[in-house]
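Dear colleague,

Thank you for sharing your sequence with our group. We've completed the structure prediction you requested, and as agreed, I am returning the results in plain text so they can be pasted directly into your records. Please verify that the sequence below matches your submission; if there's any discrepancy, let me know and we will rerun it promptly.
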Amino acid sequence: MFENLKHDNVRARAPLRLGLGGGGTDLNSYYLEHGGAVLNATIDRYAYAHLTKNPDGRLCFRADDLGQVDELPCSLDFDVRSGLSLHRVAYAHMMEKYNDGKPMSLSISTTIDVPAGSGLGASSALMVALIEAYALALRLSLGPYEVAELAYDLERERLGMLGGKQDQYAAAFGGFNYIEFLPNDVGVIVNPLRLHREYLNEFESSLVICFSGQSRESAKIIKNQVSGLNALDAKTLKSMHEIKNHAAEMKSLLLAGKVRETANVLQKAWLSKKNTASTITNDTIDDIIEVAMDHGAWGGKVSGAGGGGFIMLLADPSRRHNLIEALNSAGGAASAVRLTFEGPESWVVPS
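Please find the predicted structure tokens below.
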């Protein structure tokens, strides 16, 4: 039952990301016609996967951070859209494609460093971590573009989960990237930003993230955005064009070390984003951003689709500590955060 399993106890992790600009232009309802572009950066928050063989002859999928367990007979005769669907669809694909369509009795457990609905691309990072765990266990050679496309296909096509394409690429590549989604589905280009070290240090020292205390269902927000695009809603389309331009503008400013000016564009990007769907913001988010601006933040926006999750802010580094204290006193959960430059990693658990 384990003849194709090269390693029977492996772990993998993939980084979560902050969406600085361009979010929404990676939806195929936009980029297929107009081309999309996003600016994002991975951070020191991760999705983890642990794969081991299961000697009891069954399948066991666990999401330990959610307290969910999904136990099944060892077969491929199950609905991938039920239960822990990300775990199920990754397993089904790997067995179908790389194990001659034969099931293996495995245990797959996962955790994510942030709450569900965080706006940090967590579900896609989890899918990338699952793929990387299988790739090591089965000794597969998959490059980052292949991993990203596979993660996208499993989430968006096979499971039918609404969303864009940036999260899979951010997790599969890691780092600070300007990612272009070419019209007519010609391809995706990942452009790593090579910032001078002092510019990078200044940006990272200016960065604060704050959990709003609200998880959100991105699918509803994305559905509203897509409806606006499909109906040729002039306001939505204009805002999406602006959002794409803001991503390019922020990239140029960061490469020049102009963090303060980047924050100004971040604030403009947030205003444009709010015009793409009525569910992007709410009173809690508006209150947190207002508190932040009153305590030294230069600019901020929700990371991800909106409606809740994490808010990212840029502020004068000398005022960052006081800003974090003010946000926490106001009921947020704020902290500094570090950027990461490694993509997904996998390793055999030492015996």
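Summary note from our side: Residues 234-255 form the longest helix (22 residues).

Kind regards,
the structure core
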